[in-house]
Amino acid sequence: QVQLVESGGDLVQDGGSLRLSCAASGSIFRINAMGWYRQAPGKQRELVAGITGGGGTNYADSVKGRFTISRDNAKRTAYLQMNSLKPEDTAVYYCKAVIVGSDHYPTPFDYWGQGTQVTVSS
Questions:
Q1: What letter would DSSP give residue 27?
Q2: CA 120, CA 57: separation in Å to the nearest integer?
Q3: Looking at residue 35, what is its pLDDT?
Q4: What's the order of all strands across the beta sheet hosting 77-82?
């Protein structure tokens, strides 16, 4: 079993900062890409930022220059540093990880966390 647990969501004022964490646990041989997605009420889930196993990153245009994704492979944890937050960043933020559970069965699977609420007040 693999679990992803997000934390760090909160209520913050316009212009504030938050740091989200996503910790993976369970039967894990290797974590490939990790990413942060968000879903606002009435909208589709969208990719916010992604990071490959080698550390390459990509960002949605709406967060470039404000958000930074990183990972600590030893801790099996991904982070999303969010600065200069805006009310339009309000959403439930989800972590996704592409995980290989065993070297004997090296097929990667997608796993999702339960989500953490980020609310930015104006």
A1: S
A2: 25
A3: 98
A4: 2-7, 18-26, 77-82, 67-72
pLDDT of residue 106: 85
- Bridge partner residues of 37 (DSSP): 47, 94
Query: What are φ and ψ of residue 72, in 5° steps?
Result: -120, 100
C-alpha pair distances (Å), 36 with each of 71, 97, 104, 106:
12, 9, 28, 23
11-61 pLDDT, tens digit per residue, is 999 999 999 999 999 999 999 999 999 999 999 999 999 999 999 999 999
Name which of 106, 113, 103, 90 is nearest 34 in CA terms: 113
* Amino acid in the structure at residue 100: V
Measuring CA to CA, which residue among 71, 77, 44 is closest to residue 57? 71
What is the arithmetic mean of pLDDT over 3-7?
Answer: 97
